[in-house]
Amino acid sequence: MKDNNLERDFSEQEIIRREKYQQLVKDGRDPYLNTIFDRSHKIQEIIDQFSEFNKEELANKTDVVITAGRIRFFREAGSKAIFANIQDQEAMIQIYVRQDEIGEEEFKYFKNLDLGDIIGVTGKMMKTDHGEITIRVKEAILLTKALKPLPDKHAGIADIEEKYRRRYVDLIVNPETKQTFINRTKIIRTIQKYLDDKGYMEVETPILHSLSGGAAAKPFCTHYNALDSEFYLRIATELHLKRCIVGGFEGVYEIGRIFRNEGLSTRHNPEFTSIELYVAYKDMYFLMDLCEEVIRKCAMEVNGKTTLSYGGHDLDLGKPFRRWHMVDAIKEITGVDFWKEMTYEEALQIAKEKGIKVEKHHFSVGHIINLFYEEFVEETIIEPTFVYGHPREISPLAKANPKDPRFTERYELFIVNREYANCFSELNNPIDQYERFLDQLKEARSGNDEANDMDIDFVEALEYGMPPTAGIGIGIDRLVMLLTNSESIKDVLLFPQMKPRG
């Protein structure tokens, strides 16, 4: 059947449901007119309150419960009784409906309901002969008619893409999916509470930026009509948060959306969530300890333990995380020693011998060191590891190591080949920062579309004086993936970006 106005094709089940709805309207029972339904209990509250009583004790109780939920199971018990299961956000419970208790006419309407319909019920508690806690319904009302059928109970959503495109259906039929997003919220709340308890302040900074900066990433561009200017969706919150430190706040953080115009994969979504934290008078080693503690607290909140399995590996987040200098890591894996002073040409020759392609904009030894790390080391890291000492050239916002200024006071946390955090002892020398931005402009002219813009306002902010500061960014989505054992980033985003249907 095709609706000529909407040009939509309906299945046989959808046609039947629409016909049922039209009959309800004719009978003065349009369910969409219901605006409120006051519940005395949520379903889990009913279970918690009455499960301890046996069948005989419940039979003597006079408590009346009023609750609501979506019909997930429907079974007739003869011609004049029906068992059904209804589900709300937290739980599912059985209900028992008899014609002689709700009346012949109401029973007729109840019998005509479909799986997926949302109903409100009033009744008393009972237990079946099998000991299942059940609401013995005295009154039922249809609150919302489901015009589309739910997927088959056993088959579920067969098309994995449908899982992501119709997340609302996935949430209805898969309790594991719903629990993942409950756990996501727990993780975010745990981080907030931990940081709040330390006296750090949560702030909000702009999403639209006039310059692209704060990270090495390709931005999304948009035109700001009122200013007749090109703007960028932020690729990081870093530069504005550090302005807050200049302004006198000593610990600020932001949890928010970041946008990077990059590919879609099981690990990447162009729109994702991160937390960035900046703390005055601290360095990256302070934030190593903090990072470990935050992740352990999140693991305990979600799983009640610090051990977990991910990507086929057993991990213990309760153990101290390894701390590994990037140059030591490269030497251990490849035998190449970048502690030795060498020219760019010498490093380029070593790269060629190892089969590493060096792009034109990678014009320094530091860039080649990073290429070696990405090619040979990242894939070997399984246990939680802080890789630190990144080359100056790829860390334009990090403070140089005072003992060896070729490298910076920066680390990245890797677990099972994936990056989870990025941290600096922040560069607070405005003269050095200006020179680093100039180097980034040179890279941009050489073809690096991830290079930072020159942010003169940020340089001028540093000229007013920023105290020694440590900053960290943690990817919330990947942390949720780790702690919920989710294989794809799409599994932890309620509504991930999807390629257009073919």
Automatic annotation (TrEMBL):
Name the reaction it catalyses: tRNA(Lys) + L-lysine + ATP = L-lysyl-tRNA(Lys) + AMP + diphosphate
Cellular component per GO? cytosol
Q: What is its EC number?
A: 6.1.1.6
What one GO molecular function would you report for this record? Answer: lysine-tRNA ligase activity
Presence of the UniProt keyword S-adenosyl-L-methionine in the record = no
Q: Tell me the CDD domains matching this sequence.
A: LysRS_core, LysRS_N
Q: Which protein is depicted?
A: Lysine--tRNA ligase
Q: What is the lineage of its organism?
A: Bacteria, Bacillati, Mycoplasmatota, Mollicutes, Entomoplasmatales
